[in-house]
Amino acid sequence: MSHFAHLSEENYLKALFKLSSKQVKKVNNIALAKELDLNPATVLEMVRKLSDRKMVQLMPDKTIHLTEKGRKKALLTIRKHRLWEVFLVDKLNYQWSEVHELAEQLEHIESEDLVNRLDAFLGFPASDPHGDPIPDKNGKLTQVQLIPLKEVELGKTYIVQSFAETADSFLDYLSKVDIRPAIKIKILDRNEYDQSLIVVINKKQLHLSEKVAKNILVKP
Amino acid sequence: MSHFAHLSEENYLKALFKLSSKQVKKVNNIALAKELDLNPATVLEMVRKLSDRKMVQLMPDKTIHLTEKGRKKALLTIRKHRLWEVFLVDKLNYQWSEVHELAEQLEHIESEDLVNRLDAFLGFPASDPHGDPIPDKNGKLTQVQLIPLKEVELGKTYIVQSFAETADSFLDYLSKVDIRPAIKIKILDRNEYDQSLIVVINKKQLHLSEKVAKNILVKP
DNA sequence: GGATTTTATTTGGCATGCCAAATAAAATGT
DNA sequence: ACATTTTATTTGGCATGCCAAATAAAATCC
After folding, report:
1. How many domains does the structure of chain A reveal?
2. CA-CA distances (angstroms) from residue B165 to A187, B23, B180, B187, B210?
3. Nearest nt by C1' to B5 Cα
C-alpha cells in the first residue's frame, strides 16, 4: 500500500510535541519510549530515520528536538486529530470521552484538502471536545494559559479547559462526575494533608484527589 | 501499530468480490494480480494467508472463491467505502469523480459502530454517488434489478452489468464486439421477426441476435 | 507429439516497524 | 573511587507486504 506509508511518523512527532510542551523533563530516547509504550531500541531506530528526514534534531546531550518541519507536521496531525474528534462528537453523537481511539485512526488520513473542508463543515471550531485548541491550517496554535486544578486559589471559580492525562479510566471517571471542558468549577476547600480538593460542579459538591486535580487544567 | 493490521486483506477481498460479480472469466491468481496491479507471487502468498484465515477457498482448478466469511467482510468494506463517498460528496462538497482515492483510505477505519453512525448521519442512503447500492450493516446487498437485454425498451440507454452465460464462445464474442460490464449500450431498434436488436456501443452500431440479447444483463 | 507460450510457484531480497537480549556508556550512590 | 543502576546502543529476529528472477507445470500452437 502506498497509503499509510510512514504511518508511525505522525505518532512519534505528536508524542515529541506533547513531551516538549510539558517540558517537565528532558525529551530523550527513554522518555519517548515511555510515552509511546515502545521498546527503546525501536524508538532509537525510528528517531534516526526522523533525523534523516529532517523532522528532528539529535542534540549532543542525547535529547531529541523537533525541527520546524517536524513541529509543523506534528501540529497538522494534531489539527487533524482534533477536527475529527469534533466531527465524531458534533455530528455522530459520540461522547467526548470515547472519541480518542477513533481519532487516532482518522488522523492518519492523508489529505490537506479533506481536513480543511472538514474544518469548514464543522464551522471552524476553536477547540476540540476536550477543550484543546485546534491549530490552524498553517499549523499555528493559539495557546491559552492553563492552570492545573491542583494550583488554583480557594474560593474562586474556574472554567475547565482540558486534561493532562488521556487514559480511558481517567476520562471515564470525569464523565461519571460530569467534569468536561467548558464546565464551571468552584474551589471550596483544600485538605492540606493529602492535597485533595472540595469543589462544586453543577451545584453538587465533589471531592477530588490530588492525582485527579493535577490532571485537570482550568483557566480563570 | 495495531491499527491497520492486515490492511491489504480488505483490498484483496474487495477485488475478489468485484471479479466474482463480473464473472467474465474464472477468478484465478493472474486475474487477481491484474485487478490489484500486483506481482503474481505477492498475490499467491496473500491468497494463501486469506485461505488460512478462512476468507477464501482455493479450488482444485486454481480458482479462488470467497467463503461466506470473506464475502461478508468484502461487503462490509464496500459498505464503508460507499458511505464515506456519500459523506465526501454530500457533506464536504466533493465531486463524485474525485472521492474514490479518499474513500480508499477511509474504508480502512476499523469501527462497525462508526460506520453505522455515519450511515444514520447521512440519512441511510441507498446508493453511493456513482449509483452503486450500499450494503446494509449485515453485509446484505440489495441488488439492482437486472434486465436481460432482450426485454429492454427501444430508444433507451442501459449499462451492462453481467452475463447469464459463461461459455467461452459467448465470452469471446462479447470481447470481440467490446461488450463488457459497465459499458453503455443504447437500444436503437428491434426486429420483430427474429427478435434481434440494433444497438450502439462506443458510437458503433451493432446487430445482436435474440440468443445473445437474452444472455446480456443490464440495468437502467 | 514436440515446441512455445502462458500460468503457477519457489526463491531470495527489500522496506517498514516492531521486540528481546546483550553490551557499552553514563550517571548515581556510598 | 568503585559499585550499581540507569540510559544508550547494537545485534539478531519477527511479521506484514511487496518485488524480480528462476523454475516448474499446464495449456496452446503447429
Report:
1. 2
2. 78, 10, 13, 21, 14
3. D16
